[in-house]
Structures are given as structure tokens and as C-alpha cells.
Amino acid sequence: MLPVLKGIDLTVTPGQKVAILGRNGAGKSTLIRLIGGLEKADSGDIQSYMSISWPLGYSGGMQGSLTGLDNIYFLSRIYGVNPSMVKDYVSDFTELGTFLLEPVKTYSAGMRGRLAFALSMAFDFDCLLIDEGLSAGDSRFTQRCRDALNQKKEKAIVMVSHSQASIKEFCDQAYVLHQGQLHPFASMDAAYQFYGNCH
Amino acid sequence: MPNTQNPLHTRTNTMSLKDLWQCLCVQIRVIKALVLREMITRFGRHNIGFLWMFVEPMMFSIGITILWTYMGGHAKGTIPVAGFALTGYSAIVAWRNCVGRTSNSIKANKALLYHRMVTIFDIAISRGLLEFAAVTVSFLVLSILFTELGLMHLPSDPLQVVIGWILLGWFVIAAGLIAVYLDERSEIFERVWHVAMYLTLPFTGAFTMVSWLPEAAQTILLYSPMVNAVEMLREGYFGVGINAKYSISYLVTCNIVLTGAALLLLQRVKKIITAD
User: Fold this and answer.
1) In a domain, A10, yes or no
2) Chain B closest CA to A108's CA: distance in Å?
């Protein structure tokens, strides 16, 4: 078995907005899934003192054959939150309107991302894991996300994306994942410079 | 905004009794939500909706009861045909539905494993419980209906009927959990389970009472937990006069062993699949 990640040391504090850069297959999603508790590491441990969202992305987390609304109800129930409050917040935030009555499998990537992000805001996690989840949103929605996040400055973010625009939009710190190692950088530009030279 | 704190968010090494209690609450909450979610996709909100849940197994039992009543056969002695068919076929439907429909439950719900409190066990057990509940309601409704129509009498020992039915449910649900493992482990399961289910029919005990068979066949049949459960169920219904043969301790032992095996095997399913 080939190890994907080796000797990873990462601390995320409340309010920190961290981007993880890396080429396809570098292990970014694996790292996110480990933090999200979806997978267990072969060795080492992960300690969390914040509530952490599920990896918000284009797939996963929602049941495709259920409507958006039924997914809202289901997820509210498992997270132990009042479904009607969440429903109002999410339908207002996503502006999905009557699309919420359609099965989630008919949604575009952007619509799924919107729904997932709005749900995670409604559930009020301390730390959001974003796996490409915001990259497909239109500019109006991106602005809404920014505004919502600005209101809650203590929220932490760990984000994986190939879109430089959305990383610069949401993060203030970057790590590069290269050959199983996580490299910290003082500035975003330095991180991108290193990332550009990765082969 | 609502509070989402729960013990699964903070991972520490020590676990107190209070944590255990909280985990149990989370698990019950998740299973409840999953059962509701299953009901919506399976039966939807179209035409009679959730009623299909009971009507589907009911149609099966009614059809077989009519068939057996007019074709004769199977029932002997003091047992009314309708009662014999109802107890037997309810057991068969429970066996078939719990194993068949629980086995592919993970495939349909993989995306939900993204949420850390949703486990493979939760998904599988929700499906199993729902299927068994559906058959139970159909069994109950038909018992009342048949009794009202004068096709059979009220059970002679209701408590025994209840316990027998619960032990049967325990068995089929545990078997369903094992089927989840087999289904994830190998594609062959999906192809052979229909025929396997058909071949197990004689070992469900639905078609005959053990005491009607020759000695040698009796010994073999009584190794089947299902046969023990159905014999117990029928004795509860039709009284000790029917000469039922079963062992509660054997049935319970089988169930415990099966459940233990199922829990161990489900741990492995986690390694086989990768949530996507």
C-alpha cells in the first residue's frame, strides 16, 4: 500500500482560513476526509475542539433521489437541529426557490454547492471543510458567502480548490501538499510560486 | 442559531458514561432520520404513498392464502388453512425482504456517509427495521381481517406469538446485516441471492410443521433458526395441540452468534467501500 500522506502536522485555530494547494492526486481530498472523520489515518491522531462540517463539495453529503427540501429535513434531523428554522434560512440564502422541490440529482454543481454551503452555515459549524464546494458558485452567491463569513469572523475554513480566484476570495493562508508532505508558507504568493514549480 | 454540539465532534480518548449516553442518543436520532428518509424514497408521496409499505407484503400473503385455500394441500389436522398460510407467508416475506432489501442499502446511501455520525450499521439497520416493521403491520392487519372473517381464531397464547415474531425478526434482520457484507464483498451475491432465497424456502418452515415429517428430516430442519421461530409462532397461534417442535435457547443462541458476526463483518465493509 502506497502512503498518501506522510508526517502531516497542521493546526487550524478559530478564525483561520486555510487553503490547501496541490496537484491532482496529491492527497488534498484525503486530508479533508481525514479531518472530516470520514476516514481513519493509519497512524497519528487528529484532535478537534471545534465542530467540523462534512467536506462541502459537488458530491456526497446529500441523497440524490431526495428533493432539496427532504435533504434539508434529513440533515437537520441527524444534526439535531430544528428543521423548519433551517429550511427558512437555507431557502432564503440559496435563492433556490422551487428547485428545492426537485431531486438533488437534477441540480447543477453550482446549485449543489449553494445548498451544501447554506446548510453548513445553518448548522453553525466552527470549522468548514470546503472541497471545491464554492468554486462553481456565481458571483452573486460568492458575494453572499463572503458576507455571511464576514459576519462570523471566528469561523475557521480549510479549503481545497483548483480555482485561484475562490482561494484568494476566502483564504488568507496557504499550504502546499507535495509528495505527501505539507509545506507551510508565509504568504499566498509564495505558496503559489512553490505550487507552480511542483512536478 | 441552533446548537450542533455533540460528542462526536470532540474526539478524546477517554469515554465517560455520559458520553456513551450522548452517543446512544445521536445513534437513535440518526436511525430515526434514516428510517424516515427510506420511507420517502421507497414509497414517495404519490398515490397511496406510505400505505404501499404494508399493502405490498399484504398482497403477497393474501394471494398465497387464497391459492392454498382453494388448492388444498400444506395444512393438515386442526390448523386452519388461512392461519397456516398467513403465519408461513409472513415469515417468508420477512426473510426475503429483510435480506434482499437490506443487502443493497449501502449503495443507495453512500453519500450520507459524508456525515461523521452516520455509520454503515445505522444505514443497514434502518433498512432492516423498516422492512420488518412493514411485514409486521401487514401480518397484524391480516390477522385481524382473517379473524373477523371467521377464517381463523385469535391466538391461543398472544405473548408467545409476540415473542416468536420478535425472535424471527431478530434473526432476519441479523441475516440482512450479513447480507450487506456479502453484497459489498462480492458482485456474485447480487446474482445468486434470488435463487438462494428460493432454495432456502423449505428451511423457513413455512410449508410444513416439523412433526409431519419423517424423523430424519425433522433433525435437519430443526437446525434452521427460522424453522424454530415459525414453529414457536404457530404454537402460540394454534395451541399446543399442533405438536410444534422448537427450542428457544437454540434460536436465541443462533441470533446472538449471527448478530456478533454481523457486527464484526460490518466493520470490514467500511474498509471495502470508499464514500463518494
Assistant:
1) yes
2) 17
